[in-house]
Input
Amino acid sequence: MVSAALFLALLVQGPPPETARIVTAHQWAVRLGRDMGDSLWPGFRPDTIPVLYIVQGQGTLLLGWSGDLPQGFLPIEGVAGSGWQAAADRGAASTGTTLAGRPTAQVVVNDSATIAALVGLTTHEAFHVFEAASRKEGRRFGRGENAFLVTSYPVFDSQNESGMALEGRILEAAAGGRGGGATSKAQKRALARQFLAVRESRQRALGGDFAEFEQLAELNEGLAEYTLVRAVQLAGRQRDFPDRAGAQRLQSDKLVALHKLTENAALSIRLRYYATGPALGLLLDALAGAAWKTRLIDENLTVQDALADASGYRSQELALRRQAESTFAIKKLRAAADSGVGRLRAFRHAQVDSVLSAPGVQLVVTVEGRSLGLCGIDPQNLLQVEPGVLLHTRWLQACAGDVLQATFNTPVVQDRTAQVLRAVIGADSTVKVTTGAEGEVHIESPLVSLRASRAEVSRDGRVLTVKIKS
Output
């Protein structure tokens, strides 16, 4: 129920005049998503994703909501699925978020945002919601980059900076920028290959972590920005779109951003991929049509990998690989590898069963609300059982901040996904468990020394469980 205080606040501060502009932009994003969603990205339906528009200093506008409005929002007459709240988070950013348990796009609106810009921003942030929903273990799409690498990226390396500037100029030319640029598919393919030669040479010098950061940033923000550009491009082609000039201006601004890719010292380097990502996406559209998007997902590619395939950049490599595969019977080698992997998986599971079925007390350590870290391992005696499951066959030091320190001199099974350790720590007569105030637990045996706080201890037969809470 809406409080009397909130109701009065809404009477005093209702939706601002720019609500009409935002509603128009949202309606266009919905229309594009409904009618042309696959032209933006296969399976992407921005018309199904609610959007929070943060009107700074005035309030929050909710559009595209189905069902009862979340607490704190009052409906706006004449706008279905809408709500207004006379409060806005001053620290809010445009992003994907959650509202009342539902994945929701969030767009911060400034006074200068045109309808075309708002259509694009709405699509961009809705795409982040789509990416998050599409994320799968071991897949690049939806994973996002390690943004902390911005703190150490080599911005003062002039060789890297000049290489990136060159990439921007090549992509500008491929998009038909200054001086006319590429007009034919053959010209675009040639420029794509030049770009890849420059990019891969620069990234070899840059190093693996930073190269991966760039590639994942283009997958994350770059593809979201591609859908922004694509949505505005599609909207601008419609005769009844009210901001065709704004749509054209956005396209021109993207070309300028490529030309000046490294020149704005006031901007974070992460914003560079907002320019390269859509440029690569549009170049792929020109070379491969829409098929590259499905292939990127199915084959777990980066955007530059997809461009290498579409441009024939690695055609010689592909021909040589196929020749080798034919000469040395890759199908037989793959069949043998499949059998070998199957035997290995069964053998590792048998090892785990053998370790945990050994006589004695089985200790189970679980951690809630934080990661169970490794302060010491013996890499020579560490085996993978399954993705996320490890067998430490001899020794392990485990830790979790100030709540856990444990040294095992016995085999330990570690489930990294569930944050659980399991080990047989000796005969009952050799295991000493001491508990103290505030959940302090000490466990000592010839095979383990464990210190934990904020922990609960329980025993069920031979299984001794230590559950550490955050």
